[in-house]
Specification:
Elements (H helix, E strand, L loop, with lengths): L1 H103 L4 H12 L5 E8 L2 E8 L8 E2 L5 H8 L3 E2 L20 E8 L2 E9 L12 H35 L2 H18 L1 H10 L2 H4 L1 H14 L7 H13 L8
Antiparallel strand pairs: 1-2, 1-6, 2-3, 4-5, 5-6
Helix pairs in contact: 1-2, 1-4, 2-4, 4-5, 5-8, 5-9
């Protein structure tokens, strides 16, 4: 009996050990499989992280490259803009220099004023030279304006009046509220400019210009400064032109003895200037036959200059001046003097 019990217990123990061993083997297998899976996941995660890090590094490199390319493009555009600006400034300076040279090449008062308007029209499209005759103004030459009255009084409160009064450039829309000439029809959003043309201490003409004909206009614009430069240089040229002609005549008169031809040329120069700067008064004086009364101040001034330069030793000195008065100012008809 005892033997049977022991045999039964040994069988049970053997079966139990076998079952436990099988269970342990199964558990070990599962643990190994779990460990392998975890290891594979770790490897996969590490590879994914590395790939993401590489991708991020690549994106940063691409972004840095794009930023560098963008910066390079901006710098190139900036450099091109600077080059374009320098070229524009150089072109403006060359244009002004060419205008100054053309003015310097002019041999007469009329040619000088015509070249001034041609040159000024390269800076802004509407330009006119207005001759000053006492309290009146008369257009001499213009470009860009449709219709300018033949002559008229100088408008009060305008840029032309300011030029004549002060002998300085004047602008529309400044603190003084100066206006453009009536013929300009200038809008409030446009700029008008006037510069005096002076011979000695006298304003003999005014250069007026504006930008009304431009579809677009820069603000601030550079053309007024360019025109002021041209006007100042023209004034100097007019003075020099007159001085050279006077000097060439007077030097012979004073130091080598003036000839009849030189006296005639100097008289013609003086009378021609009266005619140029007082054309409206000359027309009216011819019509009314009162030239000497109407232009008495100008004639007396010219005669004094003539007598100062042409000595009494020149035969018929006074007759040459009177002859030019008739020929040039009275158009050959002594009765209208």
């Amino acid at each position: 009996m005892e033997h049977e019990i022991r045999t039964a217990l040994e069988g049970f123990t053997k079966r139990l050990r076998t079952a436990v061993d099988a269970e342990l083997d199964s558990l070990a297998t599962e643990l190994m499989q779990s460990a392998d899976a975890a290891s594979q996941r770790a490897v996969a995660l590490r590879e994914s992280a590395l790939a993401e890090a590489e991708a991020a590094a690549l994106r940063r490199e691409e972004a840095a490259g794009a930023a560098a390319r963008e910066a390079a493009l901006v710098e190139a555009d900036s450099a091109a803009a600077r080059v374009s600006e320098r070229e524009a400034r150089l072109a403006a300076v060359e244009r002004l220099l060419a205008s100054v040279r053309r003015i310097d090449a002019c041999a007469t008062l009329r040619e000088t004023l015509e070249v001034l308007v041609q040159s000024a029209s390269l800076e802004t499209p509407r330009v006119a030279v207005l001759l000053i005759e006492g309290n009146s103004v008369r257009p001499f030459v213009q470009r860009g304006f449709d219709d300018i009255p033949a002559s008229g009084p100088i408008a009060a409160g305008g840029v032309v009046e300011a030029c004549v009064r002060d002998g300085q450039p004047a602008f529309t829309g400044d603190a003084a509220g100066l206006k453009a000439p009536g013929f300009a029809g200038l809008g409030d959003d446009r700029a008008g400019f006037a510069a005096p043309l002076r011979v000695g201490s006298r304003t003999v003409a005014v250069l007026y210009a504006d930008d009304a004909a431009d579809a677009e206009h820069d603000a601030p614009a550079a053309w007024p400064e360019a025109l002021e430069l041209l006007a100042r240089h023209t004034s100097l040229h007019l003075e020099n032109l007159t001085a050279v002609k006077v000097s060439s005549s007077s030097s012979s008169s004073q130091f080598r003895g003036a000839s009849a031809d030189e006296a005639r040329r100097y008289a013609r120069l003086l009378i021609s200037e009266i005619k140029l700067y007082n054309e409206a008064s000359v027309r009216e004086g011819r019509a009314q036959k009162d030239l000497r009364r109407r232009l008495g101040t100008e004639i007396d001034r010219a005669e004094r200059a003539y007598r100062e330069r042409i000595p009494e030793t020149v035969p018929d000195r006074d007759q040459y001046f009177e002859t030019e008065l008739v020929a040039t100012l009275a158009d050959g008809d002594a009765s209208i003097l």
